[in-house]
Design brief:
Nuclear Transport Factor 2, Chain: A, 4 helices, 32% strand
Length: 156
């Protein structure tokens, strides 16, 4: 009996546990092709100071504010200098399903490489939160510090 139990435990440790860890270490984002388009769209809107497009790509609960309130909250000055921005998805940090008063959706944090095309040539990686709801991606925001980072933070 003990020998059978040991073989079973060995089988679990050799086959099952690595599968679980490999699944946990590689989070997946649904419809990644659409996400890449929406990522670029929101950053193009940010750089162009296009508040209406930025607002429309934001999460449904983020759009509970009026467009004017959204502009104030995000300090969007449509008359300020416009900058062409590129955004590229580098890594899925974490994705998790959530359910609340706005319904069921997937909330993800991504590492996004940003390039601002202006004389200073700023570029770097930002952490961004996005939500997948009703087969569409919505921008939730940039990490509060808005600092460039090297990698995803460790999630536990």
């Amino acid at each position: 009996m003990r020998n059978r139990l040991s073989k079973s435990m060995m089988l679990i440790s050799i086959i099952i546990i690595p599968i679980l860890f490999s699944c946990a270490s590689a989070p997946q984002a649904p419809d990644e092709a659409r996400l890449r388009v929406r990522l670029q769209d929101v950053h193009t809107a940010m750089g162009a100071k296009d508040a209406k497009t930025w607002y429309e790509i934001s999460t449904p609960y983020g759009r509970e504010k009026t467009l004017e309130e959204f502009k104030k909250t995000n300090k969007i000055d449509e008359k300020s200098i416009q900058v062409r921005m590129d955004a590229k998805l580098e890594k899925v940090c974490i994705c998790a399903p959530i359910r609340d008063q706005w319904g069921e959706r997937m909330r993800c944090v991504f590492l996004v490489f940003i390039t601002e095309h202006k004389p200073e040539g700023l570029q770097g990686r930002l952490l961004e939160m996005w939500e997948y709801f009703d087969h569409e991606w919505y921008f939730g925001g940039i990490a509060p510090t808005m600092d460039y980072v090297d990698d995803c933070p460790p999630y536990r």
